[in-house]
Recover the amino acids of this structure.
């Protein structure tokens, strides 16, 4: 009887810990989604800046979602870029591209770190499930339902 109560208490602890790891995993996935969107936006911006070139009929400037503005007398040698804290600098296009590529590389590093953390969380959830199965002597999934 005492063993059963101890096992029940241990199972509750495992379920609670699994729930915490599940929540952490969901937060990591959300952060990965945000970083993926940021990386896509950076890549699109870099592509746009690389594609700036003069033409006889003006320039087409992408404004997003497949929409463009036709611009005349556009200064395509410089670009205004937010460098943080609501500070905007005018930089030559080449310098802006380098800055954006550094941001892209940084986002990639953070994304890889988050993926590593998510993998660790998943591994720990598997360990918790195995421990619960040993306590129960069967195939019980202690992971919280994903509603």
């Amino acid at each position: 009887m005492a063993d059963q109560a101890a096992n029940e208490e241990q199972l509750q602890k495992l379920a609670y810990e699994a729930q915490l790891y599940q929540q952490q995993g969901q937060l990591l996935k959300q952060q990965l989604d945000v970083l993926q969107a940021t990386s896509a936006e950076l890549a699109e911006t870099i592509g746009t800046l690389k594609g700036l070139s003069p033409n006889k009929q003006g320039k087409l400037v992408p404004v997003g979602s497949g929409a463009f503005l036709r611009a005349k007398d556009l200064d395509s040698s410089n670009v205004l870029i937010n460098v943080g804290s609501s500070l905007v600098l005018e930089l030559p296009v080449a310098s802006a591209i380098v800055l954006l590529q550094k941001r892209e590389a940084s986002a990639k590093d953070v994304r890889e770190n988050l993926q590593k953390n998510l993998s660790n969380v998943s591994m720990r959830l598997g360990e918790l499930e195995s421990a619960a199965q040993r306590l129960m002597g069967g195939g019980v999934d202690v992971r919280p339902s994903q509603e």
Q: What stands out?
A: The chain has a mean pLDDT of 86.
